[in-house]
Amino acid sequence: MLWITDEPPPPSHSTAACYLYTSAHISIQQCPRYRRTWVCEKQRPLTHLGHTDARPRTSIRDTSLTFNPPLPHIPGFGMSFTLDHKSLLRPSEIYQTGIQLMYELAQREWTEVVLVMVVEQIANLNVLMLFMNPQPPDMPHQLQVMHCVSSLYRALNVMTDGVIFCQLRSQLSVRGLQIGALSITPVVEKLVVAADDPSMSLPDTPGELGMDSGQIIDEADRKFVINYSFYGKPINSKEVSMGVVEAMATAAPFSKDAECKELEAISPDGGCGIFIESMPNNRQIFTYKYATKALKLLYQKIIVPQKRFGDMYLDLRYDGQPFGELRMLKFVSGAQNSTDRVAEER
Question: Could you tell me which of 155, 192, 197 has the C-alpha nearest to residue 172?
Fold first, then answer.
């Protein structure tokens, strides 16, 4: 069994190596004093990382992983994950559904109570994501939007870093009391894919991106227009996907109607940076509603249809006037923390 916590490991545990485990049960607890994740072995290791093994990986990749979520600390909140590696799901469908669900959650108030459930399923995708609240309305601890955002963010990180995209169930608790559950399952079980299916690998953009550009108009508000340009170097597709997730999670604690002067997010592995800034506009304030919508449209209407992942610039306009901009940049790997990273010279 593998546990992930924000507490430092006991002296008896070495952080010099990481292991794969037969169990895919993972627990994450927040701690206000530590912002680094430590990996502690709770059962006999199956094999060292780097050893060729045909079985899917079900552990975090290495013990030096920094798990520093862009979210306010939630006192007493914890979660456990159980992954079924026999029920594999396509990474592209996991990310598309997860980003849509994160967007929906970001439109709600951070402390809003989720009384029954939140469901997300995109047409033609075989992924269903579901939050459920088993608590009676009169109980003191209730499932809130903050718990849903935090657990979804961590679930996507666990899958990405463990390179295991599969059915997942998570129990959410506050001070040991279960307040809800997250379930990520196939819509149709018989459509579950095999491990060697080509769709289990996300496509990556080969070579230079070129100088392609275009325009996206928000169907829900046609005054909101995005002019975009690809340029520079390609970025790993998972880095791009998790960069969008990171930016969404960063925006979620703020009210959607609050002004968004700037928003910065770095993908957990540090390969993709997303930077959003407001611009002066007398007609419309650039709020978190438009920041998160720009992220959603960027992923759903540009990246996914074109299957292109790399440096981008987005000019965000409302009623014909610029009121924000978004930049997505390839970052240099190997830095110790996000503040040390700089955009790669092109």
Answer: 155
Asked if 295 and 244 count as a contact pair (C-beta separation under 8 A), the reply is: yes
Query: Quick check: helix, strand or coil at residue 343?
Result: strand
Give the Cα separation of 211 and 220 in Å (integer). 28
**Extended beta strands in the chain, E state:** 2-5, 19-20, 25-29, 38-41, 47-48, 77-88, 117-120, 128-132, 166-174, 177-185, 213-217, 224-234, 262-266, 272-278, 310-318, 321-330
**φ and ψ at residue 306, rounded to 5 degrees:** -90, -15
Instruction: Copy the structure tokens of residue 103.
Output: 């967007």
Structure tokens that stand for 42 in this block: 């709770």
How far from 171 is each of 161, 183, 187, 268, CA to CA, in Å?
20, 9, 20, 23
pLDDT digit string (tens) for 230-286?
A: 987 899 999 999 999 999 999 999 999 999 999 999 999 899 999 999 999 888 999
Which residues, including other chains, have CB under 8 Å from residue 234's CB and lie 6 or more apart? 204, 205, 206, 207, 208, 209, 308, 309, 310, 330
The residues facing 312 across adjacent strands are 230, 328
Confirm if 92 and 171 have CB atoms less than 8 A apart. Answer: no
**Tokens describing residue 165:** 């995209």
The answer to whether the beta carbons of residues 341 and 266 sit under 8 Å apart is yes
